[in-house]
Design a protein that fits this description.
There is one protein chain. By secondary structure, the chain is an alpha/beta fold. It has 2 domains: 133 residues, Up-down Bundle (Ferritin), CATH 1.20.1260.30; 277 residues, 3-Layer(aba) Sandwich (Rossmann fold). 44% of the residues lie in helices and 12% in strands. The protein is built from 16 helices and 9 strands. Strands 3-2-1-4-5-7-6-8-9 form a 9-stranded mixed sheet, sandwiched between helices. Strand 2, helix 11 and strand 3 form a beta-alpha-beta unit.
């Protein structure tokens, strides 16, 4: 039996020999477009067998089987020239006038993608490795799906791409709590590489998908939007690997449309998302929003957008940083709108290091339902496992850590990790949601004023001693 893990490892080692590819992000992008074309061609072959009239949307000479599949085929300068001068221009200019969704997706992927490799002989070696995988064999596809998850995780430490990867333990926990079911419309308006969407797909498939018709319904009800080309491409591929033949992923900035133009037909049952935070939106985007809610902070605008997209009774689980829970002016008005239109019933406070190495910002998981206002909010403080000082790339957050929270979820009582705050308290403090755990005494309060003075005196004495030693060494005394 072939080992797909070792195929990918070999493939990545081969790519490192090419002078044109520098760093993980470029390597992942390079691998991404090749995998996308291979998966699409494998799927086309399958559909050609099933449907007599089926015709691939990719022109014959650009189909994987006709330029990449033959181990003894195009190589060296001829291959490099074909990719740069025929393949990429051809795919970027696919005719989309027919309105075929698959054509549009392929064209959008290649509009934002580059071929970085410079050595045609090395490209041939990579293609030959990929040709060992058959994406029509479900075992190959599922094994590759697991490896793909590792590749996507690699983005977390590749430059600025960490924002597109939410730890799997978090996406799975949030999805299980929200529990999307077959027929419900699920949306992620900033879907990155598709972690929440694939988590929702698996949750629904496990409980509800019994036949091809169910799978069709599932395919039609999962919807994502992504602005950046690399995660968009990786998300589309991720969806295909999860048996979504025609992924409903839009290559767009979901903030860049008139807020009031989102009508009842576009409203959804479930939102699962980790919107970008800490970034300013592109010029002019805030003018899409009502005057009293205009801001350049992306996380705050995404919050408004998600409230708008939820139908009455719709439920959401999202990730937001501490910065969105506090602040005056427009930030406070946005939170007021949120608490009046939705029941924000639970806030899970996470340790700072969950998203390291990409960001060390303190984040929260927020669970809310549209249609009734908030009367009280339950808080739960997620603690680091015993003996661990922080999460890291090699020690990420684990799903098992949420077990105590799951047990508490339906039988809520205050304890050292859980507390609740009535809406009246929040109204009085300007809708500040950054409420610290009242059961934990702040360390600085445990010192008396005399003790603090003594500690300050010791600190000054040490500083003076060090200064004196330094002066002596420099010959100033």
């Amino acid at each position: 039996m072939k080992n797909i893990g070792s195929i990918i490892k070999t493939l990545q080692n081969i790519m490192r020999k090419d002078q044109g590819v520098s760093g993980d992000a470029q390597r992942i992008e390079q691998l991404g477009w090749m995998i996308t074309l291979k998966i699409i061609d494998d799927k086309d072959k399958e559909l050609e067998l099933i449907e007599e009239s089926y015709k691939s949307v990719i022109p014959k000479e650009l189909q994987w089987r006709n330029w990449a599949a033959d181990a003894e085929g195009l190589t060296g300068d001829d291959l490099k020239l074909f990719i740069d001068q025929t393949l990429f221009p051809g795919l970027k200019e696919l005719d989309i006038s027919s309105g075929n969704k698959r054509t549009l997706i392929i064209r959008e992927i290649f509009e934002g993608t580059n071929n970085y490799m410079k050595n045609g002989t090395i490209i041939r070696q990579v293609l030959n490795q990929l040709n060992q995988i058959d994406f029509n064999i479900s075992e190959d596809r599922h094994l590759f799906g697991d490896i793909y998850e590792t590749i996507l995780k690699g983005l977390q430490s590749a430059g600025n791409y960490g924002e597109f990867y939410t730890p799997r333990a978090i996406t799975e926990f949030m999805t299980e709590i929200i529990n999307p079911r077959l027929g419900e419309k699920v949306l992620d308006p900033a879907c990155g590489t598709g972690g929440f969407l694939t988590s929702a797909i698996e949750n629904i498939r496990r409980q509800d998908v019994k036949n091809v018709n169910d799978l069709k319904i599932l395919e039609e009800t999962i919807h994502g939007m992504e602005l950046k080309p690399l995660p968009f491409m990786l998300c589309v591929t991720n969806m295909i690997l999860h048996d979504i033949e025609m992924p409903n992923i839009e290559y767009t900035d979901s903030l860049n449309r008139e807020y009031t133009s989102i009508g009842s037909k576009e409203r959804v049952d479930v939102i699962l998302a980790n919107p970008p935070f800490g970034a300013s939106v592109t010029d002019g985007v805030q003018t899409n929003f009502p005057l009293n809610f205009r801001t350049t902070e992306s996380a705050d605008l995404f919050l408004l957008l998600m409230i708008r997209y939820l139908k009455e009774g719709g439920r959401a689980a999202i990730v937001l940083p501490d910065g969105s829970l506090t602040g005056d002016g427009v930030k406070s008005r946005i939170r007021q709108e949120w608490l009046e239109k939705c029941n924000l019933h639970t806030i899970v406070r996470l340790p700072n290091s969950v998203f390291q190495p990409y960001a060390s910002v303190a984040t929260n998981l927020l669970f809310f339902t549209r249609g009734e206002s908030t009367r009280e909010i339950w808080y739960w403080e997620h603690k680091l496992p015993e003996g661990m000082k922080s999460y890291s790339k090699t020690k990420p957050i684990q799903k098992i850590e949420f077990e105590s929270l799951k047990k508490w979820w339906d039988k809520r009582e205050e304890n050292e990790q859980a507390w609740k705050i009535p809406i009246t308290t929040l109204q009085e403090n300007g809708y500040n949601l950054d409420i610290k755990n009242p059961h934990i005494q702040e360390e600085e309060h445990t010192y008396s004023s005399g003790k603090l003075l003594s500690m300050l005196h010791d600190s000054f004495t040490k500083s003076n001693d060090l200064l004196s030693k330094l002066n002596k060494e420099l010959g100033n005394e």
